[in-house]
Fold:
Amino acid sequence: MAGADRPSPGGGCTRCSGCTGAAVAPPGAAHASADRNRHPLDLAAARQAFAAAQDPPIHSPVLGLGIGHRPVWAHLVVDNPTDQPLKRQLAVSPSWTDTLDVHVVHPTGDTTHWHTGDALANAPYLDDALGYLFEHSFPPGRSEVLLRFATPDPMIVNVQLLTPLTLAQQAKFEHSSYGVLYGFLAALSVLNLIMYFGLGRSNSLYYALYLLSFVAMNLSYTGRGMAWLWPEAPYFQRYVILVLMVLSATAGLKFAREFLALDQSVPALGRGIQWACRGIIAWILVTVLFNWHATAVYTAFLASGIFSVALVPIGILAQRRGQAAAGYFLASGIASAIGLCATTFSVWGLLPFTPWTYRGVEMGTMAEALLLQLALVQFIRAQMLKRLDAERDARVDALTQLANRRGFLEQAETAYGLAVRHQRPLAAVILDIDLFKAINDGHGHAIGDAVLVKVGQTLTRLTRNGDCVARWGGEEFIMLLPETDLTTATQFAERIRCALEEMVVIAKDEVRVQITASFGVAQLKPDQSLEKLITAADDALYSVKQSGRNRVAHAD
Structure:
């Protein structure tokens, strides 16, 4: 480790019988001679430096020194006023400290020493909830606890002296709170993976990957990964947190890019995010390959910081463009930014390190995940409505709002199937507006369109709910009439013919445009297909048009 040890001024609890925490102080004491010569301090030199320190101890449960700090000693005093040894657990976190040496100097001068850290295989004394745990019986009198920390990662020192009761309470809280966190995020991940495989939505995939990478990152930096999954892989532990920080940030940015369709709405931004994500992933892998640990640390925290800040302006941009669910996305970005900045800056030493700031990213991520899930639900709902509208438009004539040929055939197949199955009457009526081309040529297409609209409205008004009505094409309209025989259908067609004959459309210069229509009617015969039924009605219509128009004829 580059740089010499640095002592912190003494501080801590003055009594142990009711002690639930022990304090360490920030740096600032005079250095020992070995420190000035840039040689590591041993235990004796560290005790001498603390004894010679003039600054008063500062009672704080956490020492936050930021990234890349040189090794440091911390000192606390445990005073046992009873005549019996007191059993306590010394809890030291976080778990990512490379090397940790803990010395307890008893009143008699005897010393107990523990050596651990995540640079060691199987990391002795590592607990999956509270960091490193050292059980010790403090004899009556005044004992000193000196701790030496060395890590190129953010140097955070959180020291607690726990009774069996407080140990059990804290362990229960840690396990239950993280259980809720992992369960919540895992459930959302599975849901989004199902949405991806079921609906093929890439934004759901990137969101699931973002959540899973965050869970993996959390497992790594809380020490659970090393305790449960890779206890004999200290080199892997050295980089896994940093790599997962980058993967989590890039997965989040890729989700934002897909969710907000930035490639379509803001192509330059979409391409920028794509290449930035590729570049940062490639770079972090290079740092791992060449064991550039300090560079990897700064790269990971830079990526997390950029991601935490970038979501907010991206959300604002999307909201200004009126994109679906942009409001939820912006709110989630703000929640994520607050939580991630709190954790990042507290670990970096720019904010006070407290349980709230340290776990801010977890609380922010839970709020973000909930808001983003609401955003995804709203987004999918909007997409489904668009799809339904598109499917409806594919079956509806845009001008008359009647079914088009495709929509008619889909409805007609059902009516035809029921008529055949139950041997019920079914009739088809086709009408053609007489001399429609002359109307268009003489009065313009706008008047022609108005005629088509009024014909459609007349058919809608005169037909029943169960009848199938459509614009068949051009100036032709078709109706399929369930429970209707040939005679009734012919009478019905005559009623429509009379209604159309009375219809007037006002053209420019107050010219009154009157129309007539010709009709062909046919009834379904045994073993006749729907196509042949329509053909029979069309043949009857053709005979009318050949013999004078403005009449109703039926097939034989």
